[in-house]
Design goal:
Distance between the termini of chain A: 73 Å
Order of helices and strands of chain B: HHEEEEEEEEEEHHEEHH
Strand order of the largest sheet of chain A: 1-2
Shape of chain B: elongated
Largest sheet of chain A: 2 strands, antiparallel
Structural class of chain B: alpha+beta
Helix content of chain A: 55-70%
Structural class of chain A: mainly alpha
Shape of chain A: globular
CATH topology of the largest domain in chain A: Cytochrome C Oxidase, Chain A
Strand content of chain A: under 5%
Number of helices of chain A: 25
Largest interface: A-B, 77 and 75 residues
CATH topology of the largest domain in chain B: Immunoglobulin-like
Largest sheet of chain B: 5 strands, mixed
Strand order of the largest sheet of chain B: 3-2-1-5-8
Radius of gyration of chain A: 27 Å
Helix content of chain B: 25-40%
Number of domains of chain A: 3
Radius of gyration of chain B: 25 Å
Number of domains of chain B: 3
Distance between the termini of chain B: 14 Å
Oligomer: heterodimer
Number of strands of chain A: 6
CATH superfamily of the largest domain in chain A: Cytochrome c oxidase-like, subunit I domain
CATH class of the largest domain in chain A: Mainly Alpha
CATH class of the largest domain in chain B: Mainly Beta
Chain lengths: 836, 308
């Protein structure tokens, strides 16, 4: 054993037992209160796989209908619900959740953390997704599922052409599941940046963590666009605000911009984690370090950034200007380069090593073969004249399944075969695995290759049937047969999975000789001690690491407080910074999630009073949960190594919570930017701005509103200065907060009053509707800031706000000033646009 | 005489220069793809054969960057060269297409006075002449696509998009709505019939005429039935009823090879079946199935069948 290890033997007798006690998972029905990311990760993965199966069954029903021409098995109304739900569930309830789920499950171990920094947030995100997703799926059993396609293009999805509840379920259900995805992204970003094992610099961080870091940022910038879009479409449906109605100055393409600004990055949000999985497993299977690790990380970042420049390529046939179409076409070709770079790095890794022919490796090879084909058809559809032909045909159906199943599901199955031993120490059967792979790979290509041909023979997408005499019969029949074979493969795997997971738990060891830390011996708290890392691929370079960690020779071998805690390290160099106290298990996240889901469903069912009743219950649960956060440290310092003492907790910018709040502010700003984009889009589309019969608010009122917002921020600044004096006057502090909240409320009220005096009628035209939406967002901010102020006042009076427990104040300050800036910016755009 | 049977709507069997350019591009890219797949497949086999010393730079820079950049640049250059858009000739035929749920309103300009000549669900064009479709939609988004002639363009409410093509041979080319538009999306075909220019001119002149007067008593009864039974609420028969545009113009419906936007061939008996069973033949269509007595139905069908 190395002499320089952080701790020495022997360890105190009760150290391990105290650690176990702190992290014990509740038994029986109380299991639902668990917040440990390892448990939540498993639930999350299982739920996402359930949605894979459910949406897969919908796909099989569609293939049954399309097996023969003029088939009468399923009529158009049900078929349209089937393909809408298949796409929606696969994209929103399977693909994005499962990549977050796998990350939530694997990352604590892979990074060497006891847990990620906000376990209760993960629990909330999971339960919100599970309740919301299952409720949403059940609509198909009542025939009220949405039927406007997963892309929900208006006018087809507005109240006139989709009068039922289906579209509302989509908009509220999916909008709310996006919120859960963002919560997950915040947890992952902050976790990856701050909870890595000491010494795991960014350069030594596993590629999967890099991929998830990039994906986390992509979610933060992409998902707000769809949240804004769904909010606008729901407002149009519910209150007749004509954002997308061409007759009243709206534009159906506005929705397409918002949808695809989210929708294109979404594809890479799904693919990059899979690429990260491949870069993690492939070197293990090939028994060689990854070739070009830095190049691969650069490729991941480049892909993430470029993916935001491509959304227009879903709209090539919508009548874009020739210049923008050509630029997007070039960018769409360019994104093939970082992907090709990764493919060559993987092949080079295979060449440098010697492949172990495990099932996992088979799926990786299946991935390479399939994904290369999908990438090539992707290049083809990036070329304008060809896209004009095959857009919205079965060629695109084939392409997207090649990149999503080939590019994501095959790596996912490789991951399942690779990582299942972590769950209970047993691997899946390799013999059954060959069948799984053979059936899935063969079935996949039989199902989806003929679709390229059907598309080129002129078959459009989303048709519930087709004539017998136009040449599409054979490819469709082959596709339907292939789908059945593919499903059989999934079924075989499921059978083996259930059989394997039912076995008794045993230590997993390192069955594939992997390089990453999740294979260290671990229990509910992760590894016994947090390893000091000095290189990439630590388990390959340090054969003794597992034994050292298990013996408690590395960092934090027990619990300093008797509760849950993990090390916070610096972002780049991963130097130990402080010890973070983690919250314990609690029923509050699941209660808040259930209330949130119920709120949205009751709202969809047009039961506003019941909705607000449960909504209030949800807010109470969330406030109670927040009340328990940000406690004073149990002691100022804690020992984590021999003679090494670090601070417990931190304040201000060193604190993960502040960074989480910052990301939340970015989400908020991106959402508001999407609404401002909508406003500018309809303002510029009209002949006059504002449209005839409409006028902007009186400038004096708007200037007063702006002044009120600024006064709110200034008062908050004064309150913060007052707080910095210790001891501070609680009464004066609370009064200042109340004044600040009143200023924000006044700012919002003034801007609304200004537009009411100028006769704003949001249903009159799209310009007024977008102004109405922006005013609504202003009011929402005023309310949120009011709640924040009351929360701080309550904490201050209760003595829970002090120099060592000031995170809630710091986060509110950040959000408050950001809100002021955002409100001023949106007011400026609305008021100044008519002048230019 | 125009062939009634439409060709298979394959993008690999182009019938005009615009589609031919994209077909050439398709073949070039398919060939290139087969080449790339072969190279990568061979590399994977090479990689799997035995353990080798790998120098990362040739793999990453050569394979990962130079190889795709070279191929993609060549593709971009070829596309730009092969798909230059020449200016439209002066004699370009302009046809307005307005998509409705779930049929196509097609409007020509009378060459004599520029007055609109309205038809539905088929576009007739003179072989060899360039055509520009001005495309929009009245309700939801649709998309015009005739694979053998050109790529598709979306029909969007509030916007007019253009689609330019020409047919270099006579024939009937099938197309179909390519943007999901609701229940009968699968039953919204559009046919383009390319005919000799002289034949086209006389056809168009005929289309400008009012409807043929009924020649038989039964047909006369059918015209009465048309006026009485509610048909004219949605359909126009020029010279017979006022303009109503919720459904296709029927002035010359008997001259169209299909009815119901490609649902039925316009053969004897088809009109009868259509009126009585619209909802069975085209579920979700805006037109109800008409529960008329056999006599009325028969005369109505006979009247419509002689509206050439």
């Amino acid at each position: 054993m190395r002499a320089s290890l952080p701790n020495r033997l022997p360890r105190p007798d009760d150290e391990l037992q105290r650690l176990r006690d702190a992290w014990r998972t509740p038994k029986g029905w109380r299991f639902i209160t668990t917040v440990n990311n390892t448990n939540i990760g498993l639930l999350y993965i299982a739920t996402a796989l359930l949605f894979l199966l459910l949406a897969g069954v919908l796909g099989l029903l569609m293939r049954a209908q399309l097996a023969l021409p003029e088939n009468t098995l399923i009529g158009a109304p049900l078929y349209n619900q089937l393909f809408t739900m298949h796409g929606t569930v696969m994209m929103f309830l399977f693909a994005v959740p499962i990549v977050e789920a796998v990350a939530v499950y694997l990352l604590p171990g892979m990074l060497g953390a006891r847990d990620l920094p906000f376990p209760r947030l993960s629990a909330y995100a999971y339960w919100a997704y599970a309740f919301g997703g299952l409720g949403f799926f059940c609509t198909i059993f009542f025939g009220v599922a949405p039927d406007g396609g997963w892309f929900m293009y208006p006018p087809l999805t507005d109240a006139k052409y989709s009068p039922g509840l289906g579209a509302d379920f989509w908009l509220l259900g999916i909008g709310f599941i996006e919120i859960s995805a963002i919560a997950g992204a915040i947890e992952l970003i902050v976790g990856i940046l701050f909870t890595r094992a000491p010494g795991m610099t960014l350069g030594r961080m596993p590629v999967f963590a890099w991929a998830m870091l990039v994906v986390g940022f992509m979610i933060v910038f992409a998902f707000p666009a769809i949240i804004a879009g769904t909010a606008l479409l729901e407002l149009e449906r519910a209150f007749d605000w004509p954002f997308f109605d061409a007759q009243r100055g709206g534009d159906p393409l506005l929705w397409q911009h918002l949808f695809w600004f989210f929708g294109h990055p979404e594809v890479y949000i799904i693919f990059l984690p899979a690429a990260g999985i491949v870069s993690t497993i492939l070197p293990v299977a090939a028994r060689s370090a990854l070739v070009g690790e830095r190049a691969i990380v650069a490729a991941l970042i480049a892909t993430g950034a470029l993916s935001f420049a491509l959304w227009l390529h879903h709209m090539f046939t919508a009548g874009l200007s020739a210049l923008s179409a050509a630029l997007v076409s070039a960018a769409s070709l360019a994104i093939a380069v970082p992907t090709a770079l990764q493919v060559f790095a993987w092949i080079a890794t295979l060449a440098r090593g010697r492949l172990q022919w495990t099932t996992s490796a088979l799926f990786l090879l299946g991935f390479l073969a399939t994904f290369v084909v999908g990438g090539l058809t992707g290049v083809m559809v990036a070329v304008l004249p060809f896209d004009a032909q095959v857009h919205d045909t079965y060629f695109v159906v084939a392409h997207l399944h090649y990149v999503l199943i080939g590019g994501m599901v095959f790596p996912l199955f490789a991951a399942i075969y690779h990582w299942v031993p972590l769950v209970n120490g047993h691997a899946l059967s390799e013999r059954v695995g060959r069948w799984t792979f053979g059936l899935m790979f063969g079935g996949f290509h039989l199902a989806f290759f003929p679709m390229h041909i059907a598309g080129m023979l002129g078959m459009p997408r989303r048709v519930y049937t087709y004539p017998a005499d136009v040449g599409w019969n054979t490819p469709n029949l082959l596709s339907s047969c292939g789908a059945a074979v593919f499903a059989l493969g999934v079924g075989v795997c499921l059978f083996d999975l259930v059989r394997t997971l039912a076995r008794a738990r045993r230590p997993h060891g390192n069955p594939w000789n992997s390089a990453t830390l999740e294979w260290l011996p671990n229990e509910e708290f992760g590894a016994r001690s947090i390893p000091a890392i000095g290189e990439r691929d630590p388990l390959w370079h340090r054969p003794g690491l597992a034994a050292e960690v298990q013996a408690g020779l590395h960092w934090l071998p027990g619990t300093a407080s008797g509760g849950r805690e993990t090390l916070i390290t610096s972002v780049a160099a991963a130097r130990i910074h402080h010890l973070m106290m983690l919250p314990g298990d609690s029923a509050l996240p699941i209660l808040a999630a259930a209330a949130t889901a119920a709120f949205f469903f009751l709202l969809t069912l047009k039961l506003p009073f019941a909705a607000f009743a449960v909504g209030t219950a949800g807010v109470v649960a969330a406030l109670r949960w927040l009340w328990q956060t940000d406690q004073r440290p149990f002691q100022p310092l804690a020992q984590v190594g021999e003679g090494i003492v670090i601070p417990v907790g931190a304040q201000g910018l060193s604190r993960p919570a502040w960074w989480a709040a910052l990301i939340f502010v970015v989400v908020d700003a991106t959402t508001l930017s999407s609404l401002v984009f909508a406003h500018v889009h309809v303002a510029m589309a009209g002949d006059a701005c504002p449209p005839p019969g409409t006028s902007a608010a009186p400038m004096t009122t708007i200037v007063s509103a702006a002044a009120a917002w600024i006064a709110g921020s200034a008062t908050l600044f004064a309150a913060q200065r007052l707080f910095a004096r210790a001891p501070y006057s609680v009464a004066a502090f609370c009064s200042l907060l109340a004044v600040a909240a009143a200023c924000a409320a006044g700012g919002s009220a003034l801007q609304i009053a200004g537009f009411l005096t100028s006769g704003l009628e949001p249903s009159a035209n799209a310009w007024s509707a977008t102004v109405g939406a922006l005013l609504g967002v202003g009011a929402l901010h005023a309310v949120l800031l009011g709640v924040c102020a009351m929360f701080l006042i309550a904490r201050s009076i209760a003595g829970r706000l002090g120099p060592e427990s000031r995170a809630s104040l710091d986060c509110v300050v950040l959000f408050w000033h950001a809100s002021t800036v955002l409100m001023l910016a949106s007011l400026a755009v609305v008021q100044l646009m008519p002048l230019v | 005489m125009t062939p009634l049977r439409s060709e298979l709507p394959s993008i690999l069997a182009p019938a005009g220069p615009v589609a031919a350019a994209s077909t050439d591009l398709a073949w070039a890219m398919l060939a290139g793809s087969v080449g790339v797949i072969s190279v990568i497949g061979a590399l994977i086999v090479f990689a799997l054969m035995k353990r080798r010393t790998v120098r990362p730079v040739p793999w990453l820079i050569g394979g990962g960057i130079v190889f795709p950049v070279a191929l993609l640049s060549a593709l971009m250059a070829y596309t730009l060269a092969r798909n230059a858009n020449p200016p439209l000739p002066a004699d370009t035929l302009v046809v307005s297409v307005t998509a409705h749920r779930w049929w196509w309103e097609v409007s020509y300009r009378d060459p004599r006075d520029g007055a609109p000549i309205v038809s539905a669900n088929e576009i007739r064009i003179p072989t060899g002449r360039t055509v520009r479709l001005a495309v929009t939609a009245s309700d939801v988004i649709h998309s015009v696509w005739i694979p053998q002639l050109a790529g598709k363009v979306d029909a969007i409410p509030g916007r007019i998009n253009h689609l330019v093509f020409a047919a270099d041979r006579s024939g009937t080319f099938r197309g179909q709505c390519a943007e999901y538009c609701g229940d009968a999306h699968a039953r919204m075909a559009l046919h383009v019939i390319s005919m000799a220019p002289t034949e086209f001119d006389s056809w168009l002149a005929g289309q400008a005429d009012d409807a043929a007067a009924p020649a038989t008593d039964r047909a006369r009864a059918g015209r009465e039935a048309f006026l009485r039974s509610g048909c004219r609420q949605c359909h126009t028969i020029r010279g017979v009823s006022a303009v109503a545009s919720r459904g296709p113009d029927l002035t010359h419906v008997a001259g169209r090879p299909w009815i119901g936007a490609g649902v039925l061939r316009n053969e004897p008996g088809a009109m009868h079946a259509w009126i009585a069973n619209v909802q069975a033949l085209k579920p979700g269509a805006q037109m109800p199935s008409f529960d008329l007595d056999e006599d009325t139905l028969g005369s109505l069908a006979e009247y419509l069948e002689q509206l050439r």
